[in-house]
Amino acid sequence: MTSTPALRLLVGTLVVLLVAEPPGALQKCIFDEVQAQVRVVRAASIHPQGPPDEPTPAPPTGPRHQRSSLGEMTSSSPGSPRPIRIHTWIPRESDHLSDAEKGRLEAAVEEAVRVVSSLLSVNRVVGPLLLSRDVNKYCKFIWSNSRTSNYNRCGRSNSNYRNETCLDVTIPDQHLSGCDIYPEPDSPLRTVLRPEGPGLPDTDFLLYLHTQSTDKCRAEPSVLAYAAACQTDPQGRPVAGVVVICRDRLSEAAYNHQATVQTVIHELFHALGFSRDLYHTWRDCSSSSTALGSGCSPRGKVVHSDGSGQMRIYTSAVLSALQTHLTSPDPELGGPLENLDAPGRASSHWEARVLRGSIMAAELEDPATVRIDPVTLAALQDSGWYRVELSRAQSLVWGEGEGSSFGSLSTCQHNSSSFFCTGSGLGCHFLHLHKGECQTDPYMEGCRVFKPLKNSSECWKKENTRPTPELHRSGEIWGLGSRCFSSNLTRQMQFLVSSGSVEGRCYRHRCTGPNRYQIQVSGSDWVDCPPGGAIQINGYQGLVFCPDRRLCLYPDVTPPSDDVGGFPPSNTSDPHGMMNSAQDGGWWTLRPHTELSVASALGFTAAVCLLAALAVSYRKCRSCKNRVRTVPDDHSDL
Question: Which residues are tagged catalytic?
Fold first, then answer.
């Protein structure tokens, strides 16, 4: 039996209706779990490290016969950081993708890499990037007598050694340095176990992009991707990592471009150093205004517990960024880390109650609400490996100016801040782009916030308009200029109608100045809405409440322009044209779409009728116990 294009389109549309992830659903990040299973190989300046459970020996004093992998060619001259060149490599383990899936993956990854490259600069690798082999894998033992000429060199190879891997990805031999075996402790004779590869030119970070339906993808339906750092240079800067994209998330039914871009950026930041397994290798560059990496001293321990048991990153730029954001000089305001999964231990995510909306928070919502924030960029700068374009940070509206106690468990549940809510009513997400419902989740630890509704929460989407008697009474307007306002407006009728309960509603707005705006309700003129106050509208009963310091104050808080638009813009422009990235040259090209024939178009008409009937049936059976399950709304991180 063959299927017509119309029938295939019908089936695809039904899948979108029943499977597509609803707005506001959260992605889960399992980075800490994954990274704990990966051994990060650190390149040595002269020779690799010793086997496991042995102290790293001192460098040899005798003549060298082996070229180092990264130690001699890691960075260019100090004082000349340039945008990081991220080279994307598709390993052979990746599943075969359709042209459409390849196109989606290409567009999302290229955009994510372009954003990251515009934010981070490094002392560039001189010559080709060549990764190190793990001496603990290829070597059976190392000569340990310091009086021998081959001290600290491999004396016997491991017969089981096959290749280098990271997160189930096989690293090609052409990306790796060679390794030699010295059978005698004092003889210069050596055996080449693996020859040296050519490496990758014009590369500062090698991203292995693995696309497959892995066990982790199947076990966690809310996981879109996960990542791990694989190798670092002698100064500790990550130079290679893997990002695994779950294959099923690239299907037409499940794919969301902006969410995929957001996820890749999040995972890239992990692999580039925002990782609890790498905090202790961060470097202090405060004594040098130009050098990165080699010109800086080790920071040592940067994560400490504050007086309440909250784990925090205490580094200078992070402390300054958080003090500025919360408008508090409190010296205890280190960057708070999520403590749900590992109480008393560091995490690779920010504490959700304090830094909600950050790209590195423990959970991410709709991409329009996620920010590449100043605190995250400050942390990457404090790693000592990057010069960061801090001016390109996006506005982190959540908690701004709320003081040092903001987000604490002792204050969030007592209605002390308008960023939190109580009960389970309807209102507005704090950016006022979405309608919201007052909810909590494990990361909020009892604190409640307005989260975007699962369906039709976006006020800026005109297609969310559904003419109903309720819409006529409330005067709502959806569209690009609409925002969410708390309101209980009810249109005045010939008979008396009392005002309804206060909830989030969509009305037009336009800015008249910083923190000054007007609103328009269906059938009304433009009316000034005083921030922090409330207004009445002619022809309506009830009030519209005007949020203070949420609208017309952050020019970069805007709805996305379209389904394949860029990540939310920063609060500053890009005068230097830094939106560049290294091009792999290995990306796929899309085949042109074929047009529907006349017969297919006629079949499409019949399919639409059938679809309408099925949709009615679907609505009738939604209350049935045995229904098709959608992607779960998991209240966790990305």
Answer: 267
